[in-house]
Amino acid sequence: MPNYGSVRSPRQGYTPAPLEIKPNNTGVIIGASLALVGLICATLLFTVAGRDDGGPQITLAPFGATTTVLAAATTVPNSAIRAVADDTGTFSINIRGDLQTETAPSEAAGGFTVARITASDNLEAYYNDNTTFGVLVVAVGPDIGSEVAQVLSFLEPNESVCKERVRETINTSYGQAVRISLTGCGVDNLGTKVLLSVALAEPPLVLGLRMQDTGELAAIQAAALYILETLQV
Question: Quick check: 164 and 182 in contact, CB under 8 A?
Fold first, then answer.
């Protein structure tokens, strides 16, 4: 099973990119219901082995610094799908039942809270490489006033981490999203990362997602989109 790297691990050369603050601005997060066909796709997809800068800024604390890793029960079948909510109650996503998860928020300088969920086969490995399967989802609220471009910039690794980068706009069940596909990642060039971000008007949040793996790009893109479209607020 592929991996998903840490938000900013030293091995990956990550330094948390800043999220832009715009007073009284609103971002958007995604809400959605899970369709039956999604469950079928998820079971299959999860078995699949620049940047924009702005004005006033804050820097988020590194993820994983103040959270507890909870290993999933060994009795949960790999194919089971479960809903996982972040600790702030902002959103939930549907993921494979046997993944390890972190659900505590990240605290940003200035007292802002960023809701997040991280899930991986091995969270410790995910935070330290570019090939261990994992997915990170963050929800940025109107108190920070960030936009899709800034959320993607925060999630994207340093330019030296991956060889190829493709940015495009795609259609989702929640409207148009920006997708960045990164290939040739890591010291062995075997990692692939897919970033997605969508802004919704209600509630006023911006959702950002990053998935990492070593499988085919198309399969990772499909798996990332599946999780995005299961998100509920």
Answer: yes
